[in-house]
Write a structure and sequence with these properties.
Length: about 170
Amino acid sequence: MNRASVASYAQGSPRDLRTISRELGVAFLVEGAVRQAFGTVHINAQLSDARTGVLRWSQSYDRPLAEVFAIQSEIAQAVAAQLGAQIAPPEKARIETAPTSDLAAFSLYNPAKVLLTATSFNPRGKANFLEAAQLLGEAVARDPKFLLAWCDHAPPVGYRPRPAQLV
């Protein structure tokens, strides 16, 4: 499930797990909250059976911010274990590999992803796209090996700038 599919279910909106399950065509939902302060991160994550509303798993993490990618990996593996899913070795290696070693680059990448998600069918689409491109450009400038940021930084397939747009 990608970010665009779940964006309308962000916290703060009225949420009914059964309705969300039906609309997304999923049986389970992972929810969470992240707070960052003074170089530490606090993450609450939970897995619910969306059809019944029963909480299957919940865990809180309080760690140094530098461990945020390790926490993401732990959450993914815990959810897979709760669902009885086997993680293939290549996928396990992928989720255990941090996308970047530069947390500031990652902090630029996250809001850019949100902006890119909000570009379609949005009157601010062009402005969102330009702001996202700026953030992604800053992210790849900080970490030239940050592949995810490079992938999103590339112009869309078929994009042809008009001569006045070339700088």
